[in-house]
Amino acid sequence: MSRSGWFPALLVAALAVALTFLTLPVVAIFVHSSPRELVAQLGDPAARDALRLSLETTTIAVAAIVLVGTPAAYFLATRAFRGRALVVTLLELPLVLPPAVAGIGLLAALGPHGLLGGWLQDAGVALVLQTAGVVVALIFVAAPFHLRAAQSAFEAVDPRWREASRTLGAGEARTFARVVVPAALPGLGAGLALAWGRALGEFGATLMFAGSFRGITQTAPLAIYADFATNFDGAIALSAVLVAVSAALLLGMKLLTRDALARV
Amino acid sequence: MTKRLTAAVLAAVAAVTMAACGSSGSSGTSTSGSGGGPLVVSAASSLTGAFGAYARSFDGGAVRFSFAGSDQLAAQIRQGVKPDVFASANTRLPDALYREGLVARPVVFAGNRLVIAVPAGSTKVHGVADLAKPGTTIAIGSASVPIGAYTRTVLGRLAPVQASAVLANVRSDEPDVKGIVGKLAEGAVDAGFVYITDVTAADGKLRAIELPASLQPSVAYGAAVVTGAAHPQAARRFLAGLLSGKGAAALRAAGFEPPPGG
Hints:
heterodimer; A: mainly alpha; MetI-like fold; 12 helices; 83% helix; B: alpha/beta; D-Maltodextrin-Binding Protein, domain 2; 2 domains; 5-stranded mixed β-sheet
C-alpha cells in the first residue's frame, strides 16, 4: 500500500503546481482591482475604442477564415492526393511561427516594398497601418486553428453518411451543406472559437504590420501595452475584459465539443 | 476517489496562493549586495547600438541589456522589476523614479537631436512644411515614450493649424523608436520623428532632415542605479564610464552629443 501511495501523490502535486502556475496571473488580474474600479476604467474612451476595434476586426477575420477555411478543410479531409501531408504542414506553419516572424513576413509579402507590394499599390489596396492590415494579420495567425479543427471535424464524419446522401441523388455541394456540415458543426464551432480567441489576443504581428493608432489599428492587446507605462489600472481593466471574453470562448468551445462527443 | 483528489489539489493550490499573496509585500529585496550573474541594464531603445558597443569594452564584467521604450522600462521598475541600471531617453522618468525612492540620484550622461527621418530613396518630404501636406504619412512615438513626448514638444512650437495638420497625417503611435525606424525602413510611412543617432544606426536605410534650431527640443539622457540592485558597484562603474570613459566614447561614436549644459 505504501508502495503505491507515492505515485498518486506525485500526480496530485504536479497537477497542483500546474494549476497554481497557470491560474495565478489570471487571478492576480482580478485581485488587483475591484469590479467597480474595472468598470470605471473601461469608461476611458481609448479603452472602448480599442475594444470596439478588436471586436470588429476579429469578427471580420473570423468570418473570412470560416468562409474560405471550411471548404478548404473539407477538401483536405475528403481527398487523397500527392503532397497532401506537405500542404497540411504548410497550412499549419503559422501556428508555430513567432508573432514577430509573422509581422516581418507580412511586411515582406504585402508591405510597400514587399513581394506583392507594388501590385497591391497599383490595385489601390492599402494594408499597412490600416484597419484592413489588422484583419490581414489576424487572419494569418488565426486561420490555422480553424483549418485544423475543421479538418478533423470533417474526418470524423462517417463516410457512409456521405455515400448514402450521394446514393439518394444529392450532389456533392448539397451533401456538404445538408449532411456533412451539420454533422461536423460542433467541431467547426470549436475551431471558430479557437481562431477567435487567437485573433483576439494577437499582438506582435499587428504591431509590426499594422502599427498602433487609436481607433484605426490599436486593438485591445496593443492598448494594454500602450497603457502599461502610464495607466497600469487601465491596462489591468482591459486585460480583465480580454480574460473574460477568452474564457467565454473557451467555455463555449468545451460545451460544443462535449455535445459532439455525446453524439458519437 | 476522484473527489478526494480534486479536494487535495484545490487545497494545495489555495496554500500556494496564500503563501504568494502573503509574501508579496516584501518581494524583491532578497537579492544580496553583490550577487552573481551579469550586470542588468534597462535602457532606452535608442541606446541599443551605443550600449552594445560599450558592453564589449566594459571591464566590470558581463552586461545584459533590456532595450525598450523608457516609459515601459520605468513601469516595470514601478512594478518591482529590479535591473541594476536604468538609462532613459529623458531626465523626467529617472527623476520621477528617484523621487519615488526607486533609483539613486540620476546623472545626465548624453544629449541627442531630434530629426525628421525619411526612407533613403524618398523625395516626398523635404522639411516640416511637407509633413502638414495632405497625403503625407507619418509615424511618431506614443505620447508616453520620450521620443513621442519630444515630438509633441516640436509640434507644440508650430502654428496650431500646422501642428494639427501634421498630427492628422500620423498613421502610427509606436511604442518605441525601433518601431518608427522599422516602419520607415519598410516604406510604410513617408516620414517620422526619430533621433539623429537612429538615422546613423540605420546603415543608410534612412535619411535625416534637420529641424530648424527654433523647433529643436533639448534632448537629455538620464541614468541611475536602481535601488536594491544586485550589482550596485558594477552599476556605478557602468554609469561612471558613460560620463567619461569607454561608454562616453561609444556614445560619441554613435552620434550622441555630450550632456546638454555640461
